[in-house]
Every structure is written in structure tokens, then in C-alpha cells.
Amino acid sequence: MKAPPPPSDLPVLLPFRVSRTRARVTLRPAQAWLLGAWLAGLVLVVPAFAQGAEAVLSPLQVILRWAPLLLTGFAFNVAISLVAMLLGTVAGLGLGLGLVSEGPILRRVAWGVTQVFRNVPWLVLLFFVMFLVPFQVTVFGLRVPLPDWVKATVGFALPVMANVAEIVRGAVRSVPATQWEAAESLAFTRRQTLFRIILPQCLKRMLPPWMNVYALIAMATVQASIVGVTEMLTLTAQVHAAEGGRPELFAPLYGFALLCFFLYCYPIDRLTARLERRFETA
Amino acid sequence: MDAVPNWFRALYESTGFNVTIFYDAYDWARYVNGLKTTLLLAVTTILASLVIGAVGALLQSGPSRLLRGLVNGFVVVFRNTPPLVQIFFFYFGLGTLLPAAQTADGLRVPILDNVQWAIVSLSLFAGAFNVEIFRSGIEAVPRTTIEAAESLGYTRIKAYLYVVLPLALRVCLPALNNNLINLLKTTTLAYAIAVPETLYAVKQIWSESQNVLEMMIVLLATYAVLVGVLVWIMHRWERALRIPGYSR
């Protein structure tokens, strides 16, 4: 934030920065043993109990049985998020440069586009792309089919684009004006200044918020199941139906999906927090 | 009185641009009901998430190790998992495990219906972010201020309510703004468990009237206005709460 350093020994408020929560789990050896024994019991003993009734599997057995399929779905989610991030970052860099350009018309247009795509719910954008982009396009007489997951990826790339553009603008604005003046006095053109002096300094600042956007888009990919793309959540519902639609299976199956995303996103969150702290002090 | 419906009907007949909600009373009622549900979701979840945030931040900076660990775990889990899966987990997973009443015909009547489950899970999702924001705000309140309050005889809870929280709220408002706007956008996810909010209503209208493009524009405009109104309210609030002489 822009809070100035406290002017006195008794400031009204200290500088504000959102610091991320960290779940630190410290176990004493005895507790660790108990936890290990409990987990082992869950894996080994529960299936043994369930052996008698052949038809009805325990929730854990159901998850173990379908884990390969569900994890394939999860890998598909990750793939969608990576491609959407790539597309969105490239487009967002262009849009962000438009936001800091000298031309007033270009700047206004870029600002409008950024605001629209940032302020509309992601699910609405997804519907927008799914329903209004045709299922195939004809380029020079060549028919290119657009499967639904490609359209979903584009739908996720749009909000990424707007958010990355905002990040680029913020980072360029955060470079001290003296850098621009120094470059100007060394007879760099505006373009040279931007690409060889300003942007290289920005990259470091842009990294933590950019990773934040990635974590958000990775979690948003499950929304593709609403518009009919077969990804992890769709598969979870199908697995539930395949196991006879027992209501007590819902919680473990969706819990498994939660666990997968948590194990993927929490390390990213920790890494982002570490980078934020390091760049703060640097 | 009939000018608007007539104009839109004429627009449809001359150009084929079919915005049914402006001349079809049935579609209009559906759209308005959707808007009302979205507003209901937004207002209740914003208020509930603020309470969760304030209470969670109090516990997170409190003396009890167990409570601190629980709140930390809650924040970390809800921040790092998709809100849509959270909604499914609550509605399908926990909703079916809870006991339910039965009607005279033997139909199952759950304790919480889909709208209530959406409110619960969205509040918890946004509340986890609010805990973090409030806690950071509390950390920005100087230790000396709290000591001053204690020396005046405030108990821990009273000092929190009357001294720490008002100061913390002011310093964390910009971050809170972002999160609440995000929450308003996240209410669209309630669509997935058939809560009849704006997106759901509009989808029904375009499925029946075959006017996807027109309703899509209405939908984008609706959310632009809703977000704009929330931003305006929050900025008014921010200005009303400004600490005189504390430049930011």
C-alpha cells in the first residue's frame, strides 16, 4: 500500500499488507505414531470389514478404485488452466501495454476492455464464449472444429487477460519516474525504454500476483463442468452414479476433489507468499 | 406506460433483436426474481462473511493454540480449494448426511434448501479471505494503542470491539472491497445447484425464447451495474470512515 513511513514514534496505524495464513502442523512423535496407525487402520482394516458384503464398497474403496480416472480428469483441469494461462498472459501483456500507451484512444479502449473482463463473473464469461462462439469455423475453405474444451479454455483466458493487463499496468506504474527520465536523457526511444529498461525491472514485481491469478484460474477450471466439458467434477458425478448413487458417497468423492485441488494450490500459495515477502524486503 | 414494451416489440419485429424481458411480463417476472435472489445471496453472504472474518481474526490473534490452529486450517483449506467444489461438497455431501424431515407424502425435506446451502458455503468461502484481511488489519494497529486501551480498563473483547476493530477496518477497507466484489461475482456459482439467481433465470429465458445474444448482453449489463453499485457503496463507506489527517 501507499502508506508513508510513520512520522512519529506513536503512529496511528502501521503499514498495511495482507499476509497469508499458514497452517503449521507440528506433531509430537507419539501423535505422529497415532495418526499413522489410524491412517493405516483406515486403509487396511476397513476394506477387510467390507469384504463380507461384496456388493457394497466402502467410500475409501470406491475412491481407490476410481482414483486413476478421477486423477486423469484432474490432469485435464491442470492442462486447461496451463493453456488458458499461456493464452491469457500473452494477450494480457499486449492489453497491459495498451493501458500504459501514450495514445489516448488506445488507452481508453484498453481500459474499457480490461474493466469489462475484470468485472464480469467468470462463469458468465464462460457462458458467453460457450454459447456465442460457433462449434466450428471455416478458414479459407478449411473447416476447423472447435471442441467444447477449446472454447472453455478461451473462456478462462479472457479474465486472465484482463487481470494480467492490470498487473502489467501496476508494475509499470510502480517503476520510479526517474528511470524514464534517465533513459530519455540517454536518448532511448519510448519503445526501447519500455522493452529494455522498464519491463525487465517489472518482471520480478509481476511474478507473485501473476502466480495468484494462476492459482485462481486453476481453481476456476471446475466451472467448465457446468457448461458440459468432461473434467474432474463431471467425472466425479459420473463415478457417483456408477457406484449406485448412494448418498453417503457424495461427501468422500467431493472431498477427494477438494483434496486434489488443495494439494495442487497450497504449494503455489506458499511459494507466492515467500516471493512476496522476499520482494517486499528487497 | 406501454411505450417501453411497444418499442421493444417493434424493435423485434423490425430487426429481429429480441429482448423478451422488456415486453413479455412472464420473462420480466422471472428476470426480476433472479435479480432478487442474486441480491439476497449477495447481501446475506457479505454480512455473514464479515462476521466470520471479524470473529476468525479475533480467534486467530487470540491466546488459545487450539482455536488458532483450527482457524488457520479453515482459512487455508477454504482459500486453496475451488468454491464450486465447496458448494457441491456442502450441498450434496453434507446436505444428504444431515437428518431430514418428511412430508405427508413421504417426500424428503432437507433441513437446509439449496439457497441456504449456497449462502452457507459462499459465506465460509469469502469469510476465509476476510479472516486474513482483518487479521492483517489488526496487525497494523500499534501495540501501544492496545496497551493504552488496556490501561483504561478495557477487557480484551471490549478493546477489540471498540478500539482495534474500528482502526483495523479502516486500514483494510481497500483489500476488503476487492474481496466483497469477488464474492458478488462468485454468487453466480449457486447456478450449479439450481438456485434461481440471475444467471439461472436468464439461461431459462434464452433457452425458451432462442435469444442467447440479446440475453447475454442483458446479463453482462446486469453484472456491470451490480458491481458498479457495490463499488460505489464501498467507496462511500471508505470516505465516511476516513481517519482525518491519516493520508493514504
Report on this model:
The complex is a heterodimer of chains A (282) and B (248). Chain A has helices at 29-50, 59-99, 104-119, 122-132, 148-174, 177-185, 190-220, 232-242, 250-281, and strands at residues 136-139, 142-145. Chain A is mostly helical and 282 residues long. In chain A, strands 1-2 form a two-stranded antiparallel sheet. The longest helix of chain A has 41 residues, at 59-99. Chain B has a two-stranded antiparallel sheet with strand order 1-2. In chain B, 43% of the residues are buried. Classes of the chains: A mainly alpha (282), B mainly alpha (248). Chains A and B meet through helix 4, helix 7 and helix 9 of A and helix 3, helix 4, helix 5, helix 7 and helix 9 of B.
**Number of distinct beta strands of chain A:** 2
Helix coverage percent of residues of chain B? over 70%
Strand order of the largest sheet of chain B: 1-2
Provide the structure class of chain B.
mainly alpha
- Mean pLDDT of chain A, nearest integer? 86
Shape of chain B: globular
What gross morphology of chain A would you assign? flat
Widest sheet: strand ordering of chain A? 1-2
Percent of sequence in beta strands of chain B: under 5%
Alpha carbon gap, first and last residue of chain B: 49 Å
Q: How many E-type strands of chain B?
A: 2
What percent of residues of chain A are in strands?
under 5%
H/E element sequence of chain A: HHHHEEHHHHH
Total of helices of chain A? 9
